[in-house]
Amino acid sequence: MQARRISRELALLSIGQLPAKPDKLQTQQLQDVVVAAIRTLTTEIQDTLETAAAELNRGSERLLSSETRASDVQSARTMVKDALELTQTAINRMGAALELPEFIQLANQKEVRAYVMELLTQVQANRVEVDQLINASMVEWQMHRLARIDQDILRIAVTEFWRLGVPQQVAINEAGGTG
C-alpha cells in the first residue's frame, strides 16, 4: 500500500468528523480525529471477523444438516451449495479484514500522518473555495445533491491539485479509487 493512498483513505474517514465551519483547528484536534478514524477501522476489523465466524458456523450447520436432515439427494445438494456459499462469503470477509491491520500499521507512519494532517488542514481551511470550484465545474448538477462521501472525495482531490500541487490526473485517478 502506498503512503499517499493510505493518507487519502484516512483523510476520507476523518473529514466527516470535522466541523462544518472552516475555523482554525488545532493540531491536537486533527490528531484526535485521525486516531478516531483508526479506531473505527479497528472496530470494523473486529465486526468483520465476527460476521465471518458466524457465516462459517451457519455454513457448518448447513453442511451437517445436509448429512442428517436431507430427505433426498437434491435437497442435500442445495444444503451443501448453501454451505459453500456461506463459506466463500466468510473467506472473502476475512480476506478484506486481513488487509486492514496493514492499513492501520501504515497509518501510524510519520509520512502518512503528516500528509493526512496537511490534507485535513487544507480541506478545512479552503473548504468554501473548494466547494465553489466544484460547484462551478458541475454541469446540470449541484454538489449538495451528491452523497456526503462523494463530496468529501471531491474535496480531497481538488485540494490536492489546487493547494498541494498534486498533478490533476493523479488526484482524479486517486479519487476514483478512494472510498
How is the secondary structure organized here?
Layout: H1 3-15, H2 27-68, H3 73-107, H4 110-125, H5 127-137, H6 148-163, H7 168-176
Helix pairs in contact: 1-2, 1-4, 1-6, 2-3, 2-4, 4-6, 5-6, 6-7
Describe the protein in words:
The structure is a single chain. By secondary structure, the protein is mostly helical. The chain has 2 domains: 1-109; 126-179, N-utilizing Substance Protein B Homolog, Chain A. The chain has 7 helices and no strands. The protein has helices at residues 3-15, 27-68, 73-107, 110-125, 127-137, 148-163, 168-176. The mean pLDDT is 84.
Contiguous low-pLDDT stretches (5 residues minimum) are: none
Number of domains: 2
What gyration radius follows from the Cα positions, in whole Å?
22 Å
Strand content: under 5%
Residues in helices, as a percent range: over 70%
Q: Can you summarize the main beta sheet?
A: none
Order of helices and strands: HHHHHHH
Give a brief rundown of this model:
It is built from 7 helices and no strands. The protein has 179 residues and is an all-alpha fold.
Name its key features:
N-utilizing Substance Protein B Homolog, Chain A
